[in-house]
Amino acid sequence: MTPSVADPLVAGAADAGACLAVHAPHLREAFAAALPVAADVVGRRLRGALVREGLAAAAPGDEVHAFRRVEYAHAGAGDPADLLPAGLPGNAAGFAAELRNAVVNLAIALARQQPVTAGGDPDAQAVAAERLAVAGHNLHPCGRTRLGWDPADVLAHDLEAGRTRVGFLAVRDDAHLGDDLGSALRAAYPGLAAAPAGFRLQPVHAWQRDTVVPARHRALLAAGAVRILDDELDAVPTAALRTLLLPAAADGSRRYLKLSLDIQVTSTRRGISVASTRNGPGVSALLHRLAAADPDADRLLLMAETGGAAVPAAGRDMSAILRDGLTGRLHPGEQAVAGGALPVLAAGLVATFAATTGRRDDAGAAAGFLDAYARLLLPPLLRLTVRGVALEAHLQNCLPTFVAGVPHRLAVRDFAGLRLHPGRLAAAGHEVPLWPGSVVGTRDEGVLRAKIGYTALQAHLGELVLRLGESHGLAEDAAWRIVRRVVDETYDALGDAGRADHAAFTAPFVPHKALVRMRLAGAGDEYLLVENPLHAAA
């Protein structure tokens, strides 16, 4: 059935339509046409999540894929919120509002979608490719939730806008904590004005500067500890929204700024903790030391967080982190692909891989590609986990690179969601001091494993396996046998050091991140056990 936009969704859609009539009248018809499509996308993802998390039963005839994933052809309801079962625990009404917000913003994104061009440097190409993954997070029904933004804000700052702005604050020295990001930015962009004497230049997202800072931090402004400046710097929004690609510096390099943005995207309000700004450079240095000693050191490309700063009196609202880009770091012929776009681009990459390697049949080409890709992705990440670091290696944080379609290197960005196990790190001869209250440290090996298992195996490879089945007829059980072989070989080489992790990742059941239950509870990470295809693939 083709869903229509149901009554509970009409009010939000009407408000958005009225805003578009003022700010983007050329989008009104496309927005109206996209609403049912957007509602169906959100509804299908919600149906799958409800079944996966045991909040709804699979229907007769539903095909259950690896990790209890069900893909639906239709949502079965015009308003995704109507799919929520009665009597759900926690904040079901709030979650329903998030779903409807996701529908409206996805419809705006669909109405704005333009053909993606492949020009520019590797960072510009990666951001352009992210626009192909228009629905956002591949598993979360709220991949386009933007709570806190109205449609005018979405038009000005969302991924499809193609540009936004970095603003600047002057922060008095005694109110500032961390690295002097302003000096680093002025070295790259000499046109930026210097901060007044006794102050540091602090970058801030233009929306945050105009909306959150004056409304929430009047006392800091009145006391003169923070001043809002006129200087701005053009930037390009990435799919993460709070992470912006900066213009090419004088030396041609590209960098990113991760800036506090007090809106809710998927499950989280996107401020940045003081701890993240202080941990980032130290964690980046640790990762580079660990990666340098890995057998695949030349295949792992870490996008280091080189500096971070915050205004502690402002909580999470004025924090910023500076991150390295890819431009100037790739080999001739090496193409970086934003992981979020990998499901869309996989079929084309397999075709190029087949031409390069001489594979003839579709399933054989897809199997060879998956084997090469799993050998790129998994061994370094699993070995890092044994040594005490579980990276958050979902599609959105990874930028795999390819040469003539052959998986070549793995670039990883954004270290805020990783987990560090101090005992394992100490055993490997490493330590990193973390800011008090940091959530990234854990002494629970189960938490460490759940982080890498969910992101790399379930959300990342699980998506690729499904798409290769659709495009090339690669049987799912055969695909997971390929992945299991890579996992086994990686741990065989580690001996006793990896035995417990190997047993956990190949157990009959593994922890799955319960995205809907997390929203209903309104708390942190929540996991439940799902069937593990790697167990059956032995």
Question: Would you give an account of this structure?
Answer:
The strands form six sheets. This protein has an eight-stranded antiparallel beta sheet with strand order 4-12-13-8-7-6-3-5. The chain has a four-stranded mixed beta sheet with strand order 11-17-16-14. A two-stranded antiparallel ribbon has the order 1-2. It contains 17 helices and 20 strands. The protein has 538 residues and is α+β, with helices and mostly antiparallel strands. It folds into three domains: 138 residues, no CATH class; 152 residues, no CATH class; 173 residues, Transferase(Phosphotransferase), domain 1 (Orthogonal Bundle). 43% of the residues lie in helices and 17% in strands. 52% of the residues are buried. The mean pLDDT is 95.
Brief summary of the model shown:
The protein has 538 residues and is α+β, with helices and mostly antiparallel strands. The protein contains 17 helices and 20 strands.
The CATH topology name of the largest domain reads Transferase(Phosphotransferase), domain 1
- Give the fraction of residues assigned to helices: 40-55%
Largest sheet: 8 strands, antiparallel
Described by the principal axes of the CA atoms, the overall outline is globular
Question: Which secondary-structure class do the elements indicate?
Answer: alpha+beta
Strand residues, percent: 15-25%
Low-confidence stretches: none
Number of helical regions: 17
Salient structural properties:
538 residues, alpha+beta, Transferase(Phosphotransferase), domain 1, eight-stranded antiparallel β-sheet, four-stranded mixed β-sheet, globular
